[in-house]
Every structure is written in C-alpha cells, then in structure tokens.
Write a structure and sequence with these properties.
homodimer, Dna Topoisomerase Vi A Subunit, Chain: A, domain 2, Helicase, Ruva Protein, domain 3, 2 domains, four-stranded parallel beta sheet, two-stranded antiparallel sheet
C-alpha cells in the first residue's frame, strides 16, 4: 500500500538517523503529523539552526556556537592537563566525571580500516598546545578498540617530542559489570592493572 | 557543563518525540550536526511538509495528502466490509495482512480514563457509511484493552441500528508466542475461541 508521499518522505529521512529503524521512523513520523503545527516547526527549525550555528571550536575542536568555546574561555580550568578525545560526545561524557582540565577533540570518524588516514587529521592546534609549554600531561581518552590503539601510538609519537607525561584511560571491568561476562581481553587488562589495597 | 545553545535546543526538541530518551536525543543531535547541510535541511523540510500536507481523509480518516485518500479512490476494494480502527498506524498494519475492504479511522487518542469523551469523536462519516446500505459487515479492529472494550460497545450500539454483521478481531495467543508466558486473560480468550481441527 502507498502511504501519503510527504509521510513516506519523512519516514525515509528519519530512517537515515542512527538508532532509528523502520518501525520507529513510522512511529515518529505519525507522531510528528499529530503535533501542533507550531511544535513541528520548532523541531524543524532546531535542526536547521543547530546545523548552521554549531561548529568545532578552533582551539579545542569541541562543538560550540561561540569561538572559542565555553570550556576554552573558562579560566578556572587546569591548563596543565590536556585530554584528547575522538568526538565531542566523549567530552560530554568526560565532563560528567568532574574532570576540569582542557580538551582536544580529533573530530574525525577515523575508521582506520576504511579510507580515513591519520594524515587527514588537523593536529595543528594540538601541536601548538604542546609547543606552548603549558601542558604537563596528555591524557589519551581514546576508545578501547583497534582504531584507538593505532591513534594512541600515533599521538604518543607526536607528544613524545615535548616534555609531557602521556597517559591513557585505564582498561578494566566496568563498574557494576560482571566478571563472568567480561571478555578475556578486558579481564586480562583488569588483572594487569590490578591495584593493591 | 553547558552545551552550545542551539545543540541543547535541538536535544530538547528531540526528547519530546516518543521512544527518544536523553541519550538517544544527544546521539541524534550530534549526528545531525555532522550531516552535510543539504541533508539536515531535507530532514527539516520533510517534517514541515509532512505536517502541512498530510491530513485525515474526509471519507475514512486515513492519513493522506489527496482527498479522498488512495484507499477510498481504489475501486477494487470490497465496499461491503468496513474495518474500524483507532489510528492510521493500525491501518498500515492491517493492510499488510492483505485485507482489502474499506476503513474508518477514529483518529482520536481516546484514553477514556482521561479527558476524552466518546461524544467528541466525529462519527458522522461512519454513520453515513452505515446509512448508505453498502456495508454488510463492520469489523472492529480496536486494541484489546479497556478503552477498546468501551469503544467496541459504543460503536456496536450505533451499528446495531443498521442491518449489518458486527465482528471483532479474535483474541488469542500471538503467533510465535509462548503459552508459558501468556497472561491469563489472553489464555482464557484463546481457550474460549478454540477451533476444532
């Protein structure tokens, strides 16, 4: 059966989004049709405005609508510790821990198995930060996967040229996790990194 | 920490949608920021266009961008059987079964426990259809819950004034379901409606 064309088009657009399957897309589309016109317009405008006004901070790469971003402008931050992450969403998660250093976001979907190359990353602001001499420690907050490993080695190579400590987030059992269900690599890392009590 | 205002606004808008929690909203918003500008615009426009152009068919209540809808205009449909459903999304599901009768959609979120009243439903097209004399059977495809029960009785009262058969979708075990996990009401209905082999 054919759905109304504008409805089908909306479903097609929604399916392109991550985590949205055909059933959810249909449900969302039918819900949007029932919204007061004003509310559906607000949703559409929020999409356009966010896409237009938000960009990576020129200093750290975090997403912002003012350059430099609020984190870079925050003078209470500890400028001696620089946390390097792959994505802005990682920063949002790290901020929730209470970490109050500074950041550098790589902002690149780097699937090293695919077409992306390390050379394509804009690392100039990172190198400038290192050269400034303010940084005492670089914390690599990279995902615990193969891409993260390759990236960590690459960035370590750059950071080693400066007098900084380089660290990486600890691997181990997630809090609330179950040893029984931990994969062997995680468990081995947890053993290697065991802490004396 | 503060997110960029347009980003926060987009997340707030997305959270209002069904099935979208805070984490998914954030993920969708960050994804939208990374879309090519053209694609984010297409998404926004699909929302506005669908909301503007799609409306309930004046004859059957199904969602359409042309009045009457494609189902009402389809002359191959069996006009003697009328399926009554609560929502357009129910029609989409029923169409997949191969049912080729006609429909009437109530188009009302009727939570009878809440403020909606049966009197608020626009049943005029339904009564007109009954009065036309073309209909031989009314199939009530209402949800198997309390609202559905109340609604079924109410509509049966109206349909009884005409010379039509009235039926309701069968209750029973869902195909692929497990007797062990069926609730007692479903199982009782399945027993009552058992079929001789």
């Amino acid at each position: 059966m054919r759905l109304a064309v504008p409805l089908e088009n909306l479903i097609d657009q929604l399916i392109k989004l991550p985590t949205i399957g055909p059933k959810t897309a249909q449900r969302l589309a039918l819900y949007i049709l029932k919204l007061p016109e004003e509310e559906s317009r607000q949703l559409a405008e929020a999409i356009i405005t966010a896409r237009e006004k938000v960009f990576p901070c020129s200093a750290c790469g975090y997403l912002t609508d003012v350059d430099p971003c609020s984190i870079c402008r925050d003078e209470k931050r500890d400028g001696s510790i620089l946390c390097v992450a792959e994505e802005a969403s990682d920063i949002i998660a790290i901020e929730r821990t209470g970490f109050r250093g500074r950041y550098f976001v790589l902002n690149k979907d780097f699937h090293l198995m695919g077409d992306n190359r390390l050379e394509d990353l804009n690392l100039k602001p990172f190198v400038n930060k290192l050269a400034s001499g303010e940084i005492k420690e670089v914390v690599l907050a990279l995902n615990p996967d193969i891409d993260g490993e390759v990236m960590a080695r690459f960035l370590t190579g750059i950071a080693r040229q400066h007098d900084v400590k380089i660290s990486r987030l600890a691997h181990g059992l997630p809090v609330g996790g179950d040893i029984e269900f931990a994969d062997e690599i995680t468990l081995r890392k947890a053993l290697e990194g065991r802490k004396e009590l």
